[in-house]
């Protein structure tokens, strides 16, 4: 198994939920890696050369070969470092269901969370309502997929835990900034339990930033977007 830090590099940024996925997956497989931090300024030459199509993070570089897109990176890590537990379910049907929900998280939840940050008035209320409805669906999925256990992966974390676990901290940011509760004991008790356990897991706890740090970052980004919008001529 390759464990040398100079064999595995990860281009990312501390606040990116998609980068968190790759970091947790690498930790899950006990792979040592070098973390290369991108800034909010001009994109680095390494990033542009490593992902010339999308020019986005994360990018995993293994033995000089770049792999892009967080879900693809997770699958690559799972298939490359095969010792220990698998990230993806071994059963083909369970694996298909996991991929379905991962797509749902990225296609529905993530864009809604981003849109809420810049929306105003009735549009913001509408988006928060849609997000709440989506979270109820996730609660039901957790109950069915976990078979009543703590994680989507059952007794231990797995693919869907890592994927949803990258969205959950930003969901909490939405709750704080908008003074709403989308995950609570009344409607989503399974996610409440999951949300208490997942961030404390050994392979996760050093990856996810503190809530207050994310709040400050979100306020900075929202202010930056607002200033940019205000300065754009009609």
Automatic annotation (TrEMBL):
Superkingdom of origin organism: Eukaryota
Leading EC class: transferase
GO terms of molecular function: glutathione transferase activity
Domain GST C-terminal: start-end pairs: 91-221
The entry's keywords: Cytoplasm, Detoxification, Transferase
E.C. numbers: 2.5.1.18
Main localisation: cytoplasm
Cellular component annotations (GO), alphabetically ordered: cytosol
Subcellular location, record wording: Cytoplasm, Cytosol
Gene3D superfamilies: 1.20.1050.10, Glutaredoxin
Annotated catalysed reactions: RX + glutathione = an S-substituted glutathione + a halide anion + H(+)
Database matches in Pfam families: GST_N
Sequence similarity: Belongs to the GST superfamily. Tau family.
Function: Is involved in the conjugation of reduced glutathione to a wide number of exogenous and endogenous hydrophobic electrophiles.
Designated name of the protein: Glutathione S-transferase
């Amino acid at each position: 198994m390759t464990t040398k830090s100079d064999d595995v590099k990860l281009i990312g940024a501390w606040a990116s939920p998609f980068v968190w996925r790759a970091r947790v997956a690498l930790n899950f497989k006990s792979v040592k890696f070098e973390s290369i931090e991108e800034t909010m300024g001009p994109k680095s030459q390494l990033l542009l050369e490593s992902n010339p199509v999308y020019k986005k993070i994360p990018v995993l570089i293994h033995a000089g070969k770049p792999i892009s897109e967080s879900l693809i990176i997770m699958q690559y890590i799972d298939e490359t470092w095969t010792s220990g537990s698998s990230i993806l379910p071994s059963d083909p049907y369970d694996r298909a269901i996991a991929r379905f929900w991962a797509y749902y998280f990225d296609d529905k939840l993530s864009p809604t969370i981003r849109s809420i940050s810049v929306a105003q008035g009735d549009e913001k209320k509408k988006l928060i309502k849609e997000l709440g409805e989506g979270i109820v669906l996730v609660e039901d999925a957790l109950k069915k997929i976990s078979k009543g256990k703590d994680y989507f992966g059952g007794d231990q974390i797995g693919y869907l835990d890592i994927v949803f676990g990258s969205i959950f901290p930003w969901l909490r940011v939405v709750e704080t900034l908008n003074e709403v509760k989308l995950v609570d004991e009344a409607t989503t008790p399974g996610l409440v339990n999951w949300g208490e356990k997942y961030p404390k897991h050994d392979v996760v706890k050093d990856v996810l930033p503190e809530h207050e740090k994310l709040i400050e970052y979100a306020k900075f980004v929202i202010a930056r977007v607002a200033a940019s919008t205000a300065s754009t001529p009609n």
